[in-house]
Amino acid sequence: MTRKNIDLKTVKHVASLARIEMSETEMEEYRTQLDAILGYMDKLQELDTSEVPPMARVAASATPMREDKLREGLGEKVLSNAPQREERFFKVPQIIE
In the prediction, which pLDDT does 87 show? Predict the structure, then answer.
């Protein structure tokens, strides 16, 4: 299957969906980059993967897990560096009303 090149109309459409404002120069730059990425994906589609077994993860071994133990926190050591604190907590500016 032959893929068409990405056109500026498609880039404008995607930018509007993402609510991104771009200049014509930026759109052309992104069009070129997206076209190259999709071209690379086309190249990968040419690979014969019929002999490759499906995988759930890339690493052959399971992710090592440590035992979950309750331990002492950093407490006063960390809070001593806080610009503002309230009792045992960091005090930060309110950002949501």
Answer: 87
Q: Are 9 and 28 in contact (CB under 8 A)?
A: no
Residue 21 lies in a domain: yes
The reply to whether 76 falls in a domain is no
Q: Report how far apart, in Å, the C-alpha atoms of 52 and of each of 40, 46, 49, 65 are.
A: 20, 14, 5, 28
Quote the domain boundaries for residue 25. Answer: 8-45
Check: pTM over 0.85? Answer yes or no.
no
Domain tally for the chain? 1
Residue 59 is predicted with a pLDDT of 67
Tell me how far apart the alpha carbons of residues 6 and 33 are, in angstroms, rounded to a whole number. 10
Residue 81 has pLDDT above 70, yes or no: yes
Q: Give Cβ neighbours of residue 20 (< 8 Å, ≥ 6 apart).
A: none
Identity of the residue numbered 94: Q
- The CATH number of the domain holding residue 20 is 1.10.20
H runs (alpha helix) in the chain: 8-17, 24-45, 76-79
